[in-house]
Hints:
Chain A is mostly helical and 317 residues long. Chain A has one domain: Orthogonal Bundle (MetI-like fold). Chain A is 72% helix and 0% strand. In chain A, helix 4 (88-118) runs parallel beside helix 8 and helix 11 packs antiparallel against helix 14. The longest helix of chain A is centred in the first third of the chain and has 40 residues, at 21-60. The radius of gyration of chain A is 29 Å and the shape is flat. Chain B has 2 domains: 4-229, Rossmann fold; 235-381, no CATH class. In chain B, 24% of the residues lie in helices and 29% in strands. Chain B has 10 helices and 20 strands. Chain B has helices at residues 43-51, 93-103, 108-122, 137-149, 167-184, 195-201, 219-224, 229-234, 265-270, 334-337, and strands spanning 4-12, 18-27, 32-36, 58-63, 66-67, 78-81, 155-159, 187-192, 204-209, 212-217, 241-247, 253-256, 259-262, 281-286, 291-292, 301-312, 317-322, 353-357, 368-373, 379-381. Mean pLDDT of chain B is 89; it is low at 332-350. Chains A and B meet through helix 9 and helix 10 of A and strand 6 and helix 2 of B.
Amino acid sequence: MSKMDRLEQHSxxxxxxxxxxxxxxxxxxxxxATPYLLLVPALVIYGVFTIxxxxxxxxxxxxxxxxxxxxxxxxxxxxxxxxxxHDPVIRTAAFNxxxxxxxxxxxxxxxGLFAAAVLTDHMPGSMFWRACxxxxxxxxxxxxxxxxxxxxxSQGGVMNGLAGLFVGHTVSVDxxxxxxxxxxxxxxxxxxxxVGWSFIIFLAALxxxxxxxxxxxxxxxxxxxxxxxxxxxxxxxxxxxFVTVLLVIGAAQVFTQIFEITKGGPYNSTQSLMxxxxxxxxxxxxxxxxxxxxxxxxxxxxGFSAAEIRILRQHDV
Amino acid sequence: MAxxxxxxxxxxxxxxxxxVHGLDLQxxxxxxxxxxxxxxxxxxxxxxxxxxxxxxxxxxxxxxxQVVNDxxxxxxxxxxxxxxxxxxxxxxxxxxIGFALKMKKVPKAEIAKRVKSAANVLGISDWLDRKPSQxxxxxxxxxxxxxxxxxxxxxxxxxxxxxxxxxxxRVQMRAEIARVQKRIGVAALYVTHDQTEAMTLGxxxxxxxxxxxxxxxxxxxLYDRPTNLFVAGFxxxxxxxxxxxxxxxxxxxxxxxxxxxxxSSDVVTLHPGLRRFAGQPIVVGVRPEDLRAxxxxxxxxxxVGEVEVVEALGSELLVHFTNDAPMVQAEDSNATxxxxxxxxxxxxxxxxxxxxxxxxxxxxxxxxxxxxIDPIRLEFFDPTTGSAIWE
Lengths: 317, 391
């Protein structure tokens, strides 16, 4: 059989045939079902690793739950939640988390925006400095927390060594053992490591402002301050909102650096909500209480996320 | 109100690229000067230097009597309309128009009054509360114009302000710009690559190529007496037909391929410089409308060609034809080769000849057609330098 004959035979087999009502219905059902079938793997993974843990956490928050098999988990209703409002450490942790947000977020944003404005393409060596600012972002939290612990160590720490050079005698300040110096170290580390992220977002946002817009403002008589106030900042409002909301959400969940440097001490004075939650669950085995705390934090963060989506939609970002 | 004076201005970028070379240009108070040229010729750079958006490498720019070389943009009292309009997206139309006045700390009531007045002039009073994103291209263009005129500037600069509009709107806005410029009566510099805009808008037109001024004259002078091959090829659509020819030693005729065009003594009187080229090669230019269909009342030299394409435009026929007369392309001429770099986008000339004739003539593809040329309408150029031959 020649190739041509085979082709003809193949076309004949594909010729239109009468389709019954039943097979038409089956074809339609298959067409509708296909996208859902394709979604199944993603939905299963999302369900198992996200939805179910959230449900379980919420469920556990109503029990005095134990991780050990065979031990009973009595239902305690809302008592885990009411306990939160009577826990003095929670107040310290919430205050520390709040302080962490109001100190680190504005400073990161200010430095990030300033660096993005200065390190334009025209500046010599801008690529090197950009890399310098961004590299900490891609390093490990655990590693840099350890590095900072050594820098601020009371014995042989770089910071004490430098201070000693200035004052002329040995300095042995235990930076991480005192509440405010420990908080200072945590803030410094968080700003240093986080600033590159806001920098890169602002760099992209500034790059997206049409050059003619700024030039037009200059011709219209605006000085540099007015150019920034009336043209640049309004043009990057979407990016500013985005960075603010995500940094606040991230800062509210501050954990690793505190856990690695102070473990919440001394005497819980540097605890954050997340480190205290971890301590309650995995040190005190108060899983129900920790789950209640996590649920409350999730609700607060959900509120932030909703606000973020709303604001971003308003500014068409 | 003030004039603009550009004296021996050169712009060299840090990478060594010379965008503008020794430019001299004077725009008088109330004059609308159009700077035209192909992309990359340096015309926008000239505008940006006047606006203070680019530093100049050497030379002097004056606005009125003041040397503005080192004066920041905001202190030059200029208004500029950008190609992209550069409207502030977060401000409404009224805020956009009034922004420059706000920067000058003009009282709010005065700003409102002047914005309203400018909006009335441009017919945009109904859109004052709208954001630029809610406006069409033409409306944005009007707002950009409003923003420029409201501040009553000393100098008005426009950088291809119509290039983002469709053809119909462009014609409309062209007239609008001419009207507005006449009304505000300040020195205006208009940059475009569109020669129709240049010819219709400009009181004078400056043709720029590779940063060098080729000619600056009234539009009709530019068309009728181009100073060199580049201007001849650039101004006019379709472009001037340029042929390699040979002038006989008696100055009584010029050979274009195998054809001979007789020249009367009037031609030599009009172009006395032709005497220097007796018996030598020469470039001959003829505008498409000067290649006519033969008629009894318009005797002229015959020029025969084989018709390749006929474009019927209703009011006229564009007849593309070929013959054995070798054609010159402006970018190939010695004059345009010169020592300077070639433009990236050089003047595009068709490889065939084009004639523009009245539509009643029956011309078909493949015909051998005898066109009539009035020799007095011919232009002559030096094949070595590319300069027009007059004196």
